[in-house]
Design a protein that fits this description.
Blueprint: E1 12-13, E2 20-21, E3 27-37, E4 42-52
Antiparallel strand pairs: 1-2, 3-4
Length: 70
């Protein structure tokens, strides 16, 4: 796989969109792995340094998906 930016060999894949990135263009960003709903508060298991391509724009807020509710 090649880097999305410079076409060099990619060393990883963006966690958010799947684009390849080389070591010069790789950045990190927090990624929520799992949510745990408690009685009083919802908690999240987060990876602080997930690989990010800097091209995609992960949304800062959750998106409602009512069609998935059953």
């Amino acid at each position: 796989m090649d880097c999305w930016h410079c076409r060099r060999n990619a060393v990883g894949v963006c966690r958010f969109c799947g684009r390849g990135v080389c070591e010069d263009h790789a950045e990190t960003q927090p990624f929520v792995l799992e949510l745990f709903k408690g009685k009083d508060v919802t908690r999240a298991l987060v990876v602080e340094d997930a690989l990010w391509c800097k091209v995609c724009t992960p949304r800062p807020d959750p998106v409602d998906l009512p069609e998935l509710d059953s």
